[in-house]
TrEMBL record:
Gene Ontology terms, MF aspect: CoA-transferase activity
Species whose genome carries this gene: Tistrella mobilis
InterPro entries for this protein: CoA-transferase_III_domain, CoA-Trfase_fam_III, CoA-Trfase_III_dom3_sf, CoA-Trfase_III_dom_1_sf
Keyword NAD tagged: no
Any single Pfam family the record assigns to this protein: CoA_transf_3
Protein name from the UniProt record: Carnitine dehydratase
Domain of life according to the entry: Bacteria
Keyword Transferase: yes
UniProtKB keywords: Transferase
């Protein structure tokens, strides 16, 4: 694990984070883990809403907050008061990056818009995270993960064919938008090295959603047809889904004709590889209503473990459907050394999902208590 020292790539970069919930704090967390000095600004009364997003809690603070705000320092400022705004402007005058996801329109009302701050710090990179984007008729519309998943069409393609539309269970838009924000800030730092000036970075949950939907959207624009819900399957590839066995489900990914031929031999139907209904992926997609029930009937004759052994021996990608307890105890996860312990808090969390020179930038500081670093940074409590 890389040490929390000047060897980290963003050492010497100061970030002011005026963000709460998930997307903005995740961007700040990424930058902090890469070595930036991230100062999280919270309101004095209660702070970031995510502090209360539990159970589970660690102490009186939600585990969600601990996970999204490690490696940061934290202060409180009353931005409704001129003195609080003045202190924030003082911090921003020397900062490299601002990450903010304030309610749309609030930064302008407080005189903290990009143009105003560029006047006092032309090198400042101003990163804004939006629900629906920086432009357009919904620019000022607030939104949360499930709202934007629904609006973007993610619900419409997720779920079973005969069931209701469903959301993706994880916070894929919040966390994805945080990653895009961090990536944008890194690109802006490189650009500043060339121009000497900061710039704006705008990301949104809606744009992240459209990025994740890119293949589906491209297919829709070509065909004009709404993609159907395929449960664990894929509308463009067969066989590429979970399959029933005698004692549960196993996921099989025979993603090309070679793998399908191996699968056909493994399940005792080598004729499928040359069957005119199944000889290519396009044919298998067209005839999956016939193929899949036959395959499922065969898969039900053996256990998950038996099929896994046979499929792996044939070189066919497959996996059990693990629980979190299963993956937490898995040897592969242990080998990656991605589960880390937050200092002092003692919480086990997932570390940054990348390594530099074979080492993962680590967690060197727990999430701040509300206003914990006021004296160090502001000179008062």
């Amino acid at each position: 694990m890389l040490p929390p020292a000047t060897t980290l790539p963003l050492a010497g970069i100061r970030v002011i984070e005026i963000a709460q919930n998930l997307a903005g704090p995740h961007a700040g967390e990424i930058l902090a883990t890469l070595g930036a000095d991230v100062i999280k600004v919270e309101r004095p009364e209660g702070g970031d809403d995510a502090r209360g997003w539990g159970p589970p809690f660690a102490g009186d603070t939600a585990v969600t907050f601990h996970a999204m705000n490690r490696n940061k320092r934290g202060i409180t400022l009353d931005l409704k008061h001129p003195a609080g705004l003045a202190e924030l402007r003082r911090l921003l005058a020397d900062a490299d990056i601002l990450v903010q996801n304030m309610r749309p329109g609030m930064m302008e009302q407080m005189g903290l818009d990009a143009d105003s701050l560029a006047a006092i710090n032309p090198r400042l990179i101003y990163c804004s995270l939006w629900a629906f984007g920086a432009r357009g008729p919904m620019r000022l519309t607030p939104g949360y993960e499930p709202i934007v998943q629904a609006f973007a069409g993610i619900f419409s393609i997720n779920g079973t064919p005969d069931g209701p539309p469903s959301r993706v269970g994880m916070q894929v838009l919040d966390l994805g938008t945080g990653v895009w924000a961090a990536l944008g800030c890194l690109a802006a730092l490189l650009q500043r090295g060339q121009t000497g000036r900061g710039t704006t970075v705008d990301v949104s949950l809606l744009e992240t959603a459209m990025g994740w939907l890119s293949i589906y959207f491209a297919a829709f624009k070509v065909t004009g047809r709404q993609p159907q819900r395929h449960a664990s399957g894929n509308p463009n590839v067969v066989v590429f889904q979970s399959l029933p066995t005698a004692d549960g489900e196993i996921v099989v990914a025979a993603a090309n004709d070679r793998l399908f031929a191996k699968l056909a031999r493994t399940v005792g139907r080598p004729d499928w590889a040359t069957d005119p209904r199944y000889a290519s992926n396009g044919l298998r997609v067209a005839n999956k209503a016939v193929l899949l029930p036959e395959l499922e009937a065969i898969m039900r004759t053996r256990s998950k473990a038996d099929w896994a052994e046979r499929l792996e021996a044939a070189g066919i990608p497959c996996a059990p459907i693990n629980s979190l307890a299963d993956i937490a105890a898995d040897a592969q996860l242990a080998a990656l050394d991605i589960v880390e312990t937050i200092p002092e808090a003692g919480l086990k969390v997932v570390g940054l999902p990348l390594s530099l020179g074979g080492e993962r930038p680590g967690i060197h500081r727990r999430a701040p208590q509300l206003g914990e670093h006021n004296a160090d940074i502001l000179g008062h409590d």
